[in-house]
Amino acid sequence: MSTFSFSNDVKILFGDHALDNLPYELKEHDCSRPLFVCDERSYRLGFAKEVKRALDNDMIGYAFFYRKISEKASPKDCDAIVDLYQTYDCDGIIALGGENVVQSAKIAKLMLIQGVGDFVYFKHKSEMDADKGLYREVPLFILPSDIPSGIEASDRAMIFDEKNNVFYNFNSVLTRASAVFLDVRLTDIMPAKAMATAGLGALAMGVKGFVENSGNPIALAYATSAIHTIMGELLPAMRHNSNSDYRISIYSSIINAGIAYYGIKESLLRDIVNELSLRTELSALNVLSIIFPYYYKTKVNKDRVFKSVLMPIAGEEQYALTNAKSREVVALDKLKEFWQKVVLLADIPSTLHETGIEQSDFVKIADAVITRYRGTDPHNNFTTIVHLLEEAF
Amino acid sequence: MNYKGFYYEFQNPARVAAGVNCLSDSVSVLSGLGLHNAFFVCDDVEKNSAVDEVRKAIKSAKVKVGAMYVKEEKIVTLSTLREMRDVYRVNNCDCIVACGDYKIVNTAKILRMLLAGQVVRFEDVKGINVAKKKVNIPLVVVPTCVGMSKAVTTSALVKDDEGSVFECVSPLCAPDYCIIDPALTSVFDAPTTIAGALESFAMNIEEFVSKQAITLTKCMNLIAIREIRDNVFKVVNDPMDVHAVLGLQKAGLLAGACYSSASAGVAHAIASALAAVTGEDYYICMGVVFSACMKYNLDVVEKDYAQALYYIVGDDRYASTPAEDRARTLIETSQKMIRELFDENGLPTSLSRLGLKEEDLDKAVEETMKSYALVTNPKNVTKEDVYAILRSLM
Amino acid sequence: MKGKKLFKKFVTSFNMYFFARALMCCFRYDEDFRKYVGMLPDKFVFRMRVLPDGATMTLVKENGKLTSFTGMVTAGCHDVDVCFKNIEGGFAFVTGKKSFAKCLAQSAFVISGDVSGMMTVSHMFDIVGSYMLTKRVLKKYDRAILSRKAGVHKVRFYTVFGGSLA
Question: Which chain B residues contact residue C80 at CB under 8 A?
């Protein structure tokens, strides 16, 4: 019997002049002294200026502007945000930038709500279901300026503490943003390669979200819409990468796919991707874009739901015309065909070998993943992981 | 898709738990909502065993049932609301739990709006965003019938002392937590269930073709339509089929989740007006007018209707229907399905059987033109169009 | 006028002034428009403004007569209050790029007040739009093309040069 629960009240503002609604949303959350955080890249590309202009138009100020978030989110950044927030007596956070800023801001929000002043508090608490808190309101407004990672509108936040070699994976409503703004003014022309890897990564998230959420119609809809948009618009977005409309529609599908994907409680694929991402310095979307056709190859004939994915991939017409028994094979073929087309067109890595991972590390990777994996599926074991990595190599 | 000048906002306000026995699984969530002393709104306790189940669940979440209010009204009146507000205050309640059908959920929504907005005059809740949140009063709803597309929306209806019906739209109407447990749908009343299921079908189609529909809401609507197709006849044949009941409830939930973003269309506007004029249930009015409204919109949403056909008729019939006939086939199939189910259950299929007289037509049209839903209908609706639709159904 | 986007703010205020005049002109010359006004309750006040402190327009029905002007009567004294969240929304509306209904559907503004009054005003705005904009423009922006019961040029002329219309 399918039982599900769903909760995601993040407001998504998408399209023309979405950024102009930031002052209104700030007021709605009684936020008059926000802390504005961004990374150096967003500052240099002038995105911070766009945000400041939008605030200026409505004569809204910010308590402090902090642009020193490091390129890879670290506990130090979270501590810095918490410090500044308290020092300047802020009442909200505006986070502008890529995954690094988003992750740091989300964890800082969690720390602020729980009254935690130092990240050290989380030591030995790597898996957080930290819903207990003082319930202090800390509105968080996320403005993705780089390619989104999918985590923006989800309840997850992940961070790697290099100093102590601990990977923190927070899954809590307290990390949830109040609103996510997707505005073309905050995006830059992306090389076709970056668009391709992000698009394929989102497709992988969407397919995973689709398969794992078959009983949850709301999450299923998020996944379906992401797959549908990517299948239809990724290739045009790569060919016309200066067209901001295509770009922003791919970004919105990444956000939707992320809601479905990060909503899955336990996922071996996600653990593998996180581990590979840590070892290769590649983003999770990049790793997903390489690994997912190999992952689904092992799933065909095992996962009954997989055949339904043909619908968003190929559309109603093709689905209706395909024999019910061969739908999953056709779905995988279509996925692979699309993947190959994108890989060829953008010339992006299609094997783990190309990312610099050594085959000799597979045992270590599998070991780390299986230690972290909390799921109960007996098929997800050490051998499966090594087998998948070898396939993808 | 053309994104030029395109802008949307999407927010799914409700926190939902659905499934068999999800009520007992929700106890931890209920404790986390900060409830202490609940004001319990429900329908007939003796007929509805779900009420007891919900009370037990509340108690196990260490929440006291401070007061219980049982009253059934098609649309809640101001005098009832006054009474409820007083009971709530006298018993020092701090949250509202509603268990019942649409009428109960509607009542609880309006009451929450009054209390959370600390409204003194009732005029201050009528309309859009009139009451502003001043106190936090959590609202938990447990719908016990099928097709509760309104359970998670931000709108509710209220009747004033003169008998006029007003729509209230406010974020305060959206519940904090919605528990959908098919095992609690114990009061099975075939006509109500059928009308409810078909209403959520109609709402999903209307939202699917709405001017403000986005890919995400469209996907939700299509999933809901498929759930209805798969389950409506199963429920008719076996009312105790909990899987099928849950399917229909999911469909209603999806329609509700999209409502605040995609809104509805002309059928919703006319059905609400007819419900106000004739005093008949909104669900039934929707079933009566829906096919005619689909025909009215056909020329602008042909492609969308053709796509939706798949989710109604399935693989073989969809594949064998020529592409140019698909939209019409959808309308015919929907019309046939509604007519069959309505006839079998003795529900009215024409306006005259609904009790609308020729002299009430002007009033119905006038009420329709006041509806918020006309804004998002794919076609610009004029008074003449509404007259034409209604006349075709007389 | 404080802040940035001064040009848009100026155009919005300027167009809103003439929009208010066009409303009164339509009331004088268009039969359909008068029917809609008749549906509004007496002493009905509609206010439209652009946040944070942009142009404001008020529409009042008193003794069966419609008056509209830029500026407001008394704060809080209105049946329907429409606030454009930012200047972009207000600018798109007063320049005819988006109809009232489209602005509503796209959440360009927040409304508080009576639903039926707002819908009636929305129909009135559609009529004004059909006089003030050419059919080509109306088609381009996917707006309702309504039959014009009074002479287009007459309404436009009196909107601009009509002196005191109240």
Answer: 127
